[in-house]
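Feature request disguised as a bug: please show the residue count (134) next to Osmotically-inducible protein Y in the output. Example input:
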Amino acid sequence: MKETLSKLLVLILLIGVTTGCASWRDRDTESAPTDRGAGTTTRTDDAALTAKVKAKLLSDDVLNGMNIDVDTQNGVVFLNGVVDSQDQKQKAIELAQNTEGVREVEDNLKVGRIEGSSNESGSTLSVNLLEDLG
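Example output, currently without the count:
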């Protein structure tokens, strides 16, 4: 219950920050063309796509969306991070691909485990990759 409530709080915060930042940037990027020359995709669109994909990942019961970083550039979603299994990796890719507005998904996910450990100078994070299938 606490984990679900925590995910929901993070999701609401993420959407609020993204929406706030997007509206602030709208003045500068409303019709700014992209490097690809299409002229229709803006940073605001990318921020909204990032928020949509991250929300899907966080709300999925199978995935630990907190371990997946989502970035978007010109409609291309980049997934980075570590998942527990190949099934979770595939699920994350499918969720991103099935998000309206996503043109392409760039998969940089690794299969493994994240283990938290701490030392005298602070906490560190280690990643044990089970296998590199990507």
